[in-house]
Input
Amino acid sequence: MRLHGLLSFPLTPFSADDDKVDLAVFAEHLEQQIAAGPAGLFVACGTGEFTALSPDEYRDVVATAVRVADGRLPVVAGCGGGPRMAREFAVTAAECGADGLLLLPPYLISSTPAGLVGHIRYVASATGLPITVYQRANAVLDEAAALELLDVPTVTGIKDGRGDVDAMLRLVTAIRTSGHPRAAEFGFLNGLPTAELSVQAYEAIGVECYSSAVLCFAPDIATAFHRAVRARNTEAVQVLLAEFYLPFVALRDAAPGYAVSLVKAGARLAGLAMGPVRPPLVDASPEHERQLAGIVARGRAALAGLEV
Output
């Protein structure tokens, strides 16, 4: 399953009064995401606060996404934790009808690239679902490890969240020039926080598909930026970077965890009852929410003057 284009990573709404997953709001959020036209829905992943979900909540989230998507686009579910837990989440996702998995870094433990491949094989043996491996934090591949993944039939891609373009170029080149029968179909995703800032650099090394957290709260800006990048509309790209994305990233960097919290605040500003984040994440402060509203307004004002 090799995806092309813009990818949605929906939020998971929690009710403020009883701290439960609000599946009705989640379904509304999913419909809005689908209407924006992404290539796939990645639910219960980082932006969806996978680590904050119980197994039962995870099942509800994935099953709801599959029901709402109704075959209109692929649903990819996050899975992770320790090796045994990751396998159990993978099985649950398959039972719910998910189309694929995003394998998050193993819980806490650091190892070698070869050890990481062993972990991936262990999880992959639990289900036949296509797996995208998320490379970040303690899950780092080298060229030899990446090439080993070609021999795991259900591993179909790598999502990069490290931001080391040189290292990613080495992985892409190693796989594309390997001569392996699956080399051409193997996918690479830019999964950096606010990937729009790095999309041009990654596109230059053959990584065109990227995730967009902005799609969760300002889909008009996110999709316009994607169109501008694909059309090589340099002026529009630069204007949207200057007027929206760079100010947003500066605010996002104001506190650890704002890559989720600020996105959730944006969805609340857009009218969805998203509720709070779960600890240890902290919600955006009222002042930061006010600043975010101004940044979104500034971005839309810039967008109104562009042809994209």
Remarks:
- Residues 133 and 158 are 5 Å apart (CA to CA).
- The chain is about 45% helix and 15% strand.
- The chain has a mean pLDDT of 97.
- Strands lie at 6-8, 40-43, 75-81, 100-106, 131-135, 155-160, 187-190, 209-212.
